[in-house]
Design goal:
The protein is α+β, with helices and mostly antiparallel strands. It contains one helix and five strands, in the order E-E-E-E-E-H.
Length: about 90
């Protein structure tokens, strides 16, 4: 079952995204979101959004990653997850 997340962007527009995976980097949990394009399909540029993720009072909370260093660690962890998924499909 796919989880669809609706983000409210800085300009107050909404962006629907498919939650690809959750993964841990050091002691925090992060989520990778694939934005949908205007036609409802995956965004053509292949962009993926990363957010820190946790639950508060049973509700999911997403927080932007502000550190370039942390963002690179999260991006590398996501790339490793993608490689693992591709290896399992082969």
């Amino acid at each position: 079952q796919s989880l669809i997340v609706t983000l409210t962007l800085d300009d107050d527009t909404e962006q629907k995204c498919l939650a690809l995976c959750r993964f841990d980097v050091e002691e925090n949990t992060y989520i990778a979101l694939l934005p949908f394009g205007p036609d409802g399909l995956q965004s053509p540029d292949g962009e993926v959004y990363f957010y820190q993720f946790w639950e508060q009072d049973g509700q999911p909370v997403l927080e932007s990653i502000l550190s370039d260093e942390v963002y690179m660690q999260v991006s590398d962890a996501f790339d490793a997850w993608l490689d693992q998924m591709e290896a399992e499909e082969a």
